[in-house]
Chaperone protein HtpG (Amycolatopsis samaneae), 564 residues
Amino acid sequence: TTSAETLEFQSEARQLLRLMIHSIYSNKDTFLRELVSNASDALDKLRLEAFRDKDLQADTDDLHITLETDQEQRTLTVRDNGIGMSREDVVNLIGTIAKSGTAEFLAKLKEAKDSAASGDLIGQFGIGFYSSFMVADKVTLVTRRAGADEGVRWESEGEGTYTIEPVADAPQGTAVTLHLKPVDVEDHLFDYTSAAKLREIVKKYSDFITWPIRMAGEPAEGEESAEPAVETLNSMKALWARPSSDVSEDEYHEFYKHVSHDWQDPLETIRLQAEGTFEYQALLFLPSRAPMDLFMRERKRGVQLYVKRVFIMDDCEALMPEYLRFVKGVVDAQDLSLNVSREILQQDRQIQLIRRRLVKKVLSTVKTMMSAEPEKYATFWQEFGRALKEGLLDDTENRTAILDICSFASTHDAEKPTTLREYVERMKDGQEHIYYLTGESRQAIENSPHLEAFRAKGFEVLILTDPIDEMWVDAVSGFEEKQFQSVAKGQVDLDADDDESKTAEREQRQKDFADLLTWMSSALEDSVKEVRLSSRLTTSAACIVGDSYDMTPTLEKMYRAMGQ
Ligand code: ADP
Ligand code: MG
């Protein structure tokens, strides 16, 4: 049968669509960037699949993207002859939102009642295909998967449901037709059937797309010719292959949005060129905001891999370590086979060399940022510090470089985190160690009796509240010859520089309290190893400390929570 079926959007999708329809996102032009970006991905995928599967019945002769307009019907169609989608693809990819973090995003959205705030949130999340509904009140998508006989027609007004039906004569690839919302005719700013407008948007947002973006134009004035002139709107030059002096910051930013599916500008752009026996170019970005799935199990990581300008894969894990999973971008290697698989890449020596270089370059970029643009660095640290610290455990080779770009909250300044270098510079005469205390929150740590004597003596203590802090402080021996020392562990000898009268005083106190200590030790026998007098407290009567090699209380709690 060929009758159309009506299906419901998944509820998350429905909520996002409602948002798009009553859109508050100020820059509506971006819908075209999203559709072109999808079309470009579809062409990349087709080229690769046709290369790998010689039996695929696909037409790869003239891969391109076309924009078609109809002034009378007020439609704009974005067409590609790429990989296309099966019916199942359409239902899964267009009818639902699989992006991890969607639930969190929607929860935040509920909190943000006013529309300006939700517009800002959308910019952080990125909506992709659904952004069509910012400018269209109906969207029709006709698609045929390369190699398949039958196509699919999908249509929706974005309100809860869509229809889907088979079509016999769909060309290979995907055509998305927007039935544009009525606009004030005077308002050319938003007339998406205007050639000038489309030219402008493509130039601005999609110039670097490596496939031709064509516009079927009107025949020139006075020409009778039946063939309308075809105009290519983009320059198609891969940004990473152009000299960086030639590329504007805006171009880099738009390219970033294409590869990362982010809607915000990146925080930093990093370029790398290697010549010689193993040639490659890299164009990397540090995002300005952490993705919502940064700490989720199913998160993606890694940059895109190209071989001689040909897209090979997304999320190439072999090129980026786990702790730098937020880095986005492209690596284009000249001497790899187009046939490489993820498994081969993991073992490839040259890929490992590239990765080492990329890691060092990212770390050194952050280091430069730290001194040259402290505010940018503060944003970076705020967003990615927690992930980066995993590198202190995982990447022993770069441990020093990572420590160098870390910051920590400290008792020195309630607002501003400190670097280790700054801490060491402030260390008092005779202070041997870098003191720290781990805990669940700054407040909990500041109320801790362990801190009292240190505070009284004016020693600075790092306040470590991330779960990962518990782990690396044990693994990392020190920074610039100074050992890390927990103020909650062992006998922290704060009285080292005291004179003899103090020592005598201490011995006297030891005698005075001997009976009490013996009594307490036996009363608490089952709970503690030892009860001793301490100079570390000033206002609290007692506190519990661990042995130097014990786990900290927070770590103990973590292990217990994990069932160990
Ligand atoms: P994203 O591009 O971030 O994955 P989108 O909402 O833009 O999110 O697109 C959702 C998915 O729909 C894409 O990942 C892709 O699988 C599919 N898709 C969208 N447009 C096309 C197209 N023109 N050709 C083939 N697949 C497409
Ligand atoms: Mg997309």
User: Anything to note?
Assistant: The chain has a mean pLDDT of 88. Residues 34, 38-39, 42, 80, 82-85, 93-94, 128-129, 174, 261 surround adenosine-5'-diphosphate (ligand 1) (CB under 6 Å). The longest strand covers residues 136-144.
